[in-house]
Amino acid sequence: MKKAWIILFSIALFSGCDKADEEIIDQKEHTSLDLTTSVNFQLVWQDDFNGTTIDTTKWSRIPEGNPDWKNYMTTDDQVYEVSNGELHLKGIVNPDTQTDPRPYLTGGVWTRGKFNFTYGKVEVRAKMDSAQGCWPAIWLLGSTNEYGGWPDYGEIDIMEHLNFDNFIHSTVHSNTKSSPSTKTANVNPGEFNTYGVEWHPNKIVFSINGTTTFTYYKEAGADWRQWPFDRDFHLILSQQLGGSWVGGVDASQLPVDYVIDYVKYYEYIASPTPPSGSNQYIKIQMNGSTTNQWSHLTEVTLINDNAEYTLPVGHDAPSILGDGIGINGASTGFYGLDSNGLLVINLGQGYDFDAVKLGVYNGDARIYEDVEVSLSTDGNQYKPALIKDVQNFNTFNFTSNQYIKIQMNGSTTNSWSHLTEVTLISEGTELVLPAGHDAPSVLGDGIGVNGASTGYYGLDSNGLMIIDLGQKVNFDAMKLGVFNGDTRTYQNVEVSLSKDGINYGTKEIQDIQNYQVFF
């Protein structure tokens, strides 16, 4: 049976606050709750294509060459355009085969020799035309050849689109590839999408519009044959036509246009070790259904203020299961639970961390039910366990908050007097805060559910309200409701949480009509 609870003894609410509001952080770049991204990357290089020409300090045009993808490359202006904040790379029928006998011409740019990098995150927002033989791509290629020629020096294909497919390919190339090394993901290529990759020292994570689509892992003990991804690469944006993979070109469907809105590169910053603290022991208890004592447990990651620290190899996993640990369910090694479904990890010293992420082998489709995680300072007395199901990975958040800040910065005519519900959500169980939260008497006193009109909360003249829960409480999400007879949309509503009422964490900003769940 699934277990979830919220303990709440006393609640008090205060309207108004003298503290200055914190700076709003860019949600896309720094505050994603997907913990596979976040603070490990810092934006250091970008091109928004706001001029009228290609920035030659960043890019070079790609000339003709021998591989399929270079067959029709040219540096000629007619396949390049920078306008309206976009770079256009075109594929056309060659209008002058007397000067150049090739039937088609295509455009491509790369950063080779101008911007090379090892590790980091790349994001490219782009859309593309479809045609028979059309092959636009976003990819990284090794910049040096000390490991040999292609594919020994490595290739990371962030996005490749073929013909009229409604999906793209993400692929890793090296001398010896692990399986799987490629994956497809559905997409509408004619619409703008943000194609991304996070390149870590031990994994390569592909994404579309911020959602992870595929992860490739460094194997335990791997050398350059499986992992040449430990040295400089450069970025390539290419509009390609024809070749052994994509097939022949239908000239009647040309020209095609590959449009790039922006390119961003974030420098990789190694995850820190969590600061010293009191938590030394982690107990993992498997009480749900499993056939092998959860031998596919492959990752235990500590999370402190959104920074991740994945425990390294050597944490006494039973030898029969091997010794080591993977990332987000990689199959490079397993932790083993004993015959009672129990594992206790001694971190060696105390650390301060907010959450523990558990990963299972991502080839395992089972759901491990009712997994309990608890912490201890001495290995004897453990704090109350958090209980979750795990498939692929799940995060057990030990952070508890006492204060909720709600800020109304969007359009409203009455300081958001129609706020009717504040609900805490933990493991799918909802606790609606009860009546009596000092809503201004002129607005009535009480609270509804999902926007019911039984009573209203009131924000102060600055559109601000602080809720003091009376004690620290564990919850996963919070739902705000507005009177469901009110058809207005309250825009840019900010919610942030605090342990002490002074230091507030990440803001989540959403519009609300009827109700909306935050975090």
UniProtKB/TrEMBL annotation:
UniProt keyword list: Signal
InterPro entries listed in its UniProt record: Beta-glucanase-like, ConA-like_dom_sf, Galactose-bd-like_sf, Glycosyl_Hydrlase_16
PROSITE patterns on file: GH16_2, PROKAR_LIPOPROTEIN
Signal peptide: 1-20
GO MF annotation list: hydrolase activity, hydrolyzing O-glycosyl compounds
GO BP, sorted A to Z: carbohydrate metabolic process
Pfam family, one: Glyco_hydro_16
Residues in GH16 domain copies: 47-271
Alphabetical list of PANTHER family matching this protein: GLYCOSIDE HYDROLASE FAMILY 16 PROTEIN, GLYCOSYL HYDROLASE-RELATED
Similarity comment: family membership: Belongs to the glycosyl hydrolase 16 family.
Protein name: Beta-glucanase, GH16 family
